[in-house]
Structures are given as C-alpha cells and as structure tokens.
Design brief:
By secondary structure, the chain is an alpha/beta fold. The protein has one domain: NAD(P)-binding Rossmann-like Domain (Rossmann fold). The protein contains 9 helices and 7 strands, in the order βαβαβαβαβααβαααβ.
Amino acid sequence: MSGVLSGRTAVVTGAASGIGLSIATRLIADGATVFAAVRSNESLERLREKALIAGGFVGQLNEPGVADNLVAAAVQALGHVDVVVNNAGGGAILPTLEHTEESLRATIDNNLWTTIYCVKAALPHMVSRGHGRIINIGADSVRTGLVDHAMYNAAKGGVHAMVTGLAREFATSGITANTVAPCYVRTPELATLLDSGCAPSRLVHVIEEGTAIVPLGHPGDPADVAAAVAFLAGEDSRFITGQTIYVNGGSSMG
C-alpha cells in the first residue's frame, strides 16, 4: 500500500464490476477508505469478496432522493466524505434511429441524472468541510464521435460540461471537479463476452471501430482509468480543476 491517500474517504458509484471495481480497489490500495454504491444486494456481496470496502449502499441512483440517502449513509459510516467518484452509468449504445423512448430515458437517467443527483447530494457536506474532490467518469466518444454513440454522448457530454461550472462555483470552498474520459476499455466482463463468441455483431463492430482509432493499437484497461482517478483524488492534483483527462491511447488529442 502506497499510502498516498491515507486518511481520505471516497464514495465510488457503480463499483460492482469493471471500471468501478478497478477504481475502488486502486483507491483502497493507495490507502483510502471506500464506501461503494451498487444496484443490488447480490452485487454488493460479490464486491465484498473482491475488495475491502468499508461499507456499501444498494439503490437506483437515478431516482430522486436516493443519492441523498447514499451520502448520508457514507457520512455515517466514514465520518466524512472527501471524494465522490461518479462512475455509475449504463444505457443503450444504438444507432440513433433505433433508440426508443425507453432506451433514451435509460441512457440519460443512468449517466446524467445519476451524476447530477450524486453531486448535489455531496456538495453541502463538502462545502461544510471546506474540502472535496468530485470526479466524474465521462467518455472519449464525446470527442471522437464513435459510431452508434450519439445519444450516449448526449448524456456523457452533460457529465463533461458539468465540471467546468462546478469547478468555478465551488473553487473557493476547497472543492475541485474533474472528468476522467476513457476510450473503449476491455473490462473482464466484456472480455468474457467477446471471447465466448456470443457477442452481438453490432457490438463487435462498435468495439472494432473504437479500437481502430487508438494510435497505441489496443483498448484501455480498467487500471488505466483507475490510475487517473487516484491521481485526481490525491493532494498532488490540488491545482487541477474543471478539466477532462482523456485516458484514450491517443484516440483524441489536443
């Protein structure tokens, strides 16, 4: 354990698997105490087997009031919250004209509204303490225009845009706000699906397109995203706010 985050507390949403699990385990390895938010009791039990989390919360964060309950539970368990990592997301990656009202609402709710609710719930606590780190997980596809991502990008674009306003508004309260935006990341769950040969052909096409535009020639790893989050959660990032850090192997630059 490096200890660079020793004494810090963090809430990580969408922590059950993939990028969220990698973020939680990296923050813990760096010395932070992590409170995890997941969608089901089964997911929480599986998470406890994989990571030494200090506590967990089960709920649908895209519903009004649930994020307030999450933050209250985290403060009760941890004493205070230094860092909130808004990783919870999901939705449909589809050609624009194949989206339905249901898939559109799920995409916006799961990505944008979940983040908005968690930010609003955490800010009063952070303001009262004069310190906080808000870290949103965005998407490199907002800049690259990856195939079938237009509606997903509408949601993630809001997540990106949020941090500039937050960074300026709450700078004098000791709070920084930043986004980490990964390209296609080969999570263990996605790798299992692809290796099984059962992945839908459209998904395979999107992944191939997403990999082809990466100059380094391969997708990201969840640990790559977690490393950027860990940096933003620590003291070395104290003068960085309102920024989007692209963890993308060069698929978008500038």
